[in-house]
Amino acid sequence: MMKKTFRKIHLWLSIPFGLIISLICFTGALLVYEDQITRLTNHDLYYVENPGKHTLPIGNLVETVAAQLPEGISVKGVTVYPQPDRTYQVNLSAPRGAAVYVDPYTGIIKGECQRSPFFRTVFSLHRWLLDSPPSDDGIFWGKRITGVTVLLFVFILLSGVVLWWPRSRQDLTNGVKIALHKGKTRFWYDLHAVGGVYALLLVLVMALTGLTWSFDWYRSGFYKIFGVEMMTSTSADKKKSQKGEPGKSENLQSATTNRFTYWQQVYDQLAKENPENLKIEISNGTASVSNNRLGNTRGADRYSFDPRSGKITGASPYKTMDNSGKIRGWIYSVHVGSWGGSVTRILWFLTALLGASLPLTGYYLWIKRLYRKKKKRIVH
Predict the structure, then answer these.
(1) Residues 350 and 294 in one domain
(2) 280 domain-assigned
(3) Parallel, antiparallel, or unpaired for β 312-316 and 300-305?
(4) What tens digit of pLDDT does each residue of 237-284 get?
(5) Is there a single domain that holds both residue 219 and residue 316?
């Protein structure tokens, strides 16, 4: 009786939302390798063909870029990669996330840093079904539909486990094998049921972390599980002020002189203290050094410095940060599978593809069952 109830739940949740689930999983699989594919297909933008012996001073390099920017746009910061053949990423004030890549040996701007149209479309499909945020306070339907779909996907997966659950040791043995020589229908059934079991844990991880971007109430509860209270923007600004991070007055004072003068000095000092060849980001009064470890791939040691002298005035090592400073990076790293390097990326990619196949094999089995029932009625 219980399995009959769960079979109905599994079926009637899957039918209307199956295609959206497949779309979300398939686009998610593509996004796992977005950075690698983008660098491969735009090699000249990210790499220098003939690296020289010495890079230009960061201050001079950034000045050169700043002099070429349109009015109203300024340099926000610079990202220096450890590989000698990588271009520098100079971050701009507008639009949001804008940057250019620069040859560090010549100062020549190689091009703009922007998401390719292909991956922009893939990301929009994955998150919002190609919808865009409303201009007013209306409902963001694309975001709402994907969020509800992923939430229901969790229940679909759990109900599927109940349906699969073996009653005996022999059933368990058969329940973890995909029969290759017992007919097409049996093969697709095993691919659906057994494939779902194999993919269950990782797909659940992807779904449960992904929901933090869909619902505020879910994100608050998810964070609270890890002992983190959601902060309002006002509270966050107050906390930064209490930590003594550079404020507006200090930035305004430094603006009267060349604010890029001491960026090379700051970089040299941080590179010396971190000889592991790490990515270093510098902006006006703050800097960060990537921790370059497995786990939170967005984790970094953070520093503040006096823009007028280049002197390091404060440090906040990643290992001493509380959970509130780490959880966002952890959620992202786990969601996209980057936390364990190449091995977890491969696992996440294959599992997302398997997740995309589950509704499709389910539709096949459902239609096949309807056809058999119809055929029986005709016979009788």
Answers:
(1) yes
(2) no
(3) antiparallel
(4) 444 444 444 444 344 334 434 679 899 999 999 999 988 878 999 998
(5) yes
Any domain includes 260: no
Instruction: Please tell me the predicted confidence (pLDDT) of residue 240.
Output: 45
Percent of the chain with pLDDT over 70: 92
Instruction: Report the domain count for the chain.
Output: 2
Expressed as residue numbers, the domain containing 81 is 38-117
Provide mean pLDDT across the span 325-335: 92
61 shares its domain with 7: no
Give the pTM.
0.87
